[in-house]
TrEMBL record:
This is Tyrosine-protein phosphatase. It comes from Lacticaseibacillus jixianensis. Coiled coil: none annotated. Residues 126-159 form the Tyrosine specific protein phosphatases domain. The lineage of its organism: Bacteria, Bacillati, Bacillota, Bacilli, Lactobacillales. It is an enzyme of class 3 (hydrolase). GO terms for molecular function: protein tyrosine phosphatase activity. The keyword Hydrolase applies.
Amino acid sequence: MIDRLISLKNSVNLRELGDYPAAGGQVIAPHKLLRSGSLSELTPQEADWLRAYGLKVVVDLRSESEVAMTPDVLAAGVEYHHLSVYPFTNDSLVAKISRHLRAKFDHRINPMAEVYLKMLTDPHANDVYRALFTLLLATDQPGQSVLFHCAAGKDRTGVGAMMIEGALGVPEATIREDYLLTNAVFFAPSEEVKAALKTGASDLVDRMNQNAAETGCYVAVKDLIDKEYGDWTHYFTAQLGFSQGDLRQLRRLYLTDPEN
């Protein structure tokens, strides 16, 4: 089984999405999708290791000021794309979206959960995640990894991971677990995290998140997708504007048969 946590000393929350179950009995192909926090503390040797691992494309979801202060350390030949999720389109539109979401999901909304829902509905954020999927579709060779990241690898990256995993047909329970694993990575003893990530971390995740605000963020996102779109594949086509052919191509590129 693939190691979920990639243990580079100077990485932040660097994780492999390969081997997660997906549509049609397949799994996400290893060495294709990576998620992480900042790459600014990597050594040149660690950056070279990632390139050898298959890293081809990096998508940086951080703001301009974050990138200016702590730029990524990347090996030669790795494509870099800066696609800032923030700021949202404009205050009046955000206020309108917020009123709509509060009216429908007020029992779920806390300030951070509201930001998550804006990431799913704001036109600028939609353009950013649409561009991320476009890069995924363009990275069409086996073993070429796309890494998407923000600062901690939790919020902007977490929403992007939900979108990608949803489009690939990853089960809801696994999408939730992968999102909540960030808490375990940051707050549980390292050896416990490594063991749990190899075997499936449901118990650890549940224990780490019994009262965590992040659980509310995930539930708010799930409510929005279920009630407004029905499922993630309809979000992919209706909200982001991709075709069914794009969805089939995405799955062809990023899914594989599980090893026996």
